[in-house]
Amino acid sequence: MKDETIGIQGLAFHEPLLFEQGSQGRRGCSLPENDVPEVKPERLLPKKLLRHDVPGFPELSEVEVVRHFTRLSQWNYGVDLGFYPLGSCTMKYSPKINEEVWRLPGFSRAHPYQPESLAQGALELMCELEQYLAEVSGMDRVSLQPAAGAHGELLGMMLIRAYLESKGSPRKRVLVPDSAHGTNPASAAICGYQCVQIKSGPRGYVEPQAVAEVMDEDVAAIMLTNPNTLGLFEEQIAEIAKIVHSKGGQVYCDGANLNAIIGISRPGDTGIDVLHFNLHKTFSVPHGGGGPGAGPVGLKAHLAPFMPVPVVEKKGKRFVLNYNLPSSVGKVRAFYGHFAALVRAYAYIRSLGPSGLRRVAEVSVINANYLMSQLKSHYHLPYDKFCKHECVFSDARQIPHEVHTLDIAKRLMDYGFHPPTIYFPLIVRGALMIEPTETESRETLDQFIAAMKRIAEEAERDPELVRSAPHKTKVSRLDEVKAARQPNLRWKGKAPGQGGSSAG
Ligand SMILES: *Cc1c(COP(=O)(O)O)cnc(C)c1O
After folding, report:
1. Domain count of the chain?
2. How far does the centroid of ligand 1 lie from the alpha carbon of residue 224, in Å?
3. Which domain holds residue 122?
4. In angstroms, rounded to a whole number, what is the distance separating the alpha carbons of residues 187 and 220?
5. 178-194 pLDDT, tens per residue?
6. C-alpha distances in Å from residue 206, one per residue of 196, 210, 230
7. Would 280 disulfide with which of 287, 420, 456, 486, CB 3.0-4.6 Å?
8. Tell me: the pLDDT tens digits for 119-149?
9. 329 and 424 inside one domain
10. CATH code, domain with 474
11. Residues 312 and 451 in one domain
């Protein structure tokens, strides 16, 4: 593989801050003369809230502003630019048709207070999306309200709590495996539960025996992730569900990574009572920059009375918003959730169809197993078995050369790749969690494999080169704590190819 760098040479520009550009009085627009009587600001606002000038306010022309932000956008990295193998995050390519569809004026201009009679299309879409999600997950109902995966977890725990309360007691504890995403124990705790950690077995699975040992009538629920964060399919999930149900507990499934099983296995068929989806993972809603995403929650019929209001329903030929759920946990999001995310997911499901969704799972699993099989000659693979959508390596073979996971991740940037997830899951020391996703081609995977192998060889031959990486980015290794606390946005780098500055 050639040592080429992306986006920092040739016509990629260095860009001063907006505050350092322009000149006094320069304007980006021209407005016509005022033809209505002027209202003095003092008449609208208290004097102490008014200011007459803004010190240092940048004054620029339109073209300067456009170029500034366009140039900055070229410094950025995203899935439309290259491979983004961030484990657990499913940074797959989002087809542009989804964007086209939600930008249709009937969707993008709909107002949340529009009367039902004028929002029939939007309501129909939500009603159908609920059915599709219920169908692929094997659940009875789906709430579309939660804004993200963690928010869905919280709603799931609220539903469980409300259900158990209706049976007499909300109970006290929630079981969470040590391989869980950090949001799981956080959601249970916010919902007022004490978390009990369950140790994964030596093969990387949650063992029914370990659950049985701590399961009693004070335990409200278990939160399982399937496929789990090691990328493994929890083989004994039905058995575990039986144990939890036998003591009156509920089974929550973190379905953030449904792309590994969609169209093949349905969590609802294995005893799951509640599960959340990540539309901004499995269903191709973009999630760079933190959202907005959506984390719908699927539930079994016995939890339906507690769903957040309103729920969308079909009455005869009309779609209506039903607010009349006396036992509802209330609202968890303004209006009906992130509608634009729902439309994108709907477009994605409709454009793929059932066989296309199944193909998503097949290809995501094949891609991950291909990467895993190619890289295990160079990296330690703690759980060496077929994986689902992602695989987890560690730095155990690089540590003797004093090269660590962080160094490997940083060095990948020199080869034009976003680093994978590192140091998670916590049960693997120095974890490198790689999720190729189903949207990457064989060629891209081969380039990534070549880069990873080369880094492993560098670690043996020239460890300092890896330890001091990245060398070809705008800034080299940052002190991450200082960079977050005292950001220095001025770039004072050296010429490309000579390594960046050590900007703090
Ligand atoms: C991403 C993820 C979450 C959290 O989802 P957010 O939308 O980021 O809140 C929870 N669990 C797992 C397994 C995930 O991968």
Report:
1. 2
2. 13
3. 96-351
4. 13
5. 989 999 999 999 999 99
6. 14, 7, 11
7. 287
8. 999 999 999 999 999 999 999 999 999 999 9
9. no
10. 3.90.1150.10
11. no
